[in-house]
Amino acid sequence: MRASATRERLLELMRELARTAPRKGHYRVYLVGGGTAVYLGWRPSSLDVDLSADQEAIFHDIQGIKERLNINIEFASPEHFVPPLPGTADRHIPIETIGRVSFYHFDPYAQALSKIVRGFDRDMDDAKQFLESGLVDGPILRDLVSRIPEASFARYPSLSRSAIVGAVEQFLSRRG
Prior knowledge:
By secondary structure, the chain is of the alpha/beta class. It has helices at residues 7-19, 34-39, 62-69, 108-118, 121-132, 138-146, 161-174, and strands at 27-32, 49-53, 73-75, 93-98, 101-105. The chain has a five-stranded mixed β-sheet. The longest helix is centred in the C-terminal third of the chain and has 14 residues, at 161-174.
């Protein structure tokens, strides 16, 4: 069993990704889910680190990194679970740049929506933190969800607009 991902281990992972980055180009890596929650101090650790990137070449040594750091790494993006929100690419939050790699928190609105729709207790706690931290504004989240193009739902046969809107409304109504 691999060790839990703490903030220190996330920082090690970021340094290691930068160290092993291909020599040509610049890369963007996104922390998603538990990685964001741990990095921001919302919880002390996560079972794994969910990552996404603009170019998969950055992950060429991911198996070696996992072994060297004894950490679980998964490739995940909110869009694996929910339709993309309009303007997501403009809402990624910069963390830092190390060498040729810029690290970001994936769009907090997309992360919050994914967590709300999944609905597990830990996900709901994280979604609540997105609101309480000010990274997500309830009315803006509601508006973004309302603007998801209908055609986007074709890739998510288990989801419907009404289910997503209902989950967001229920979540926001509990938060006042």
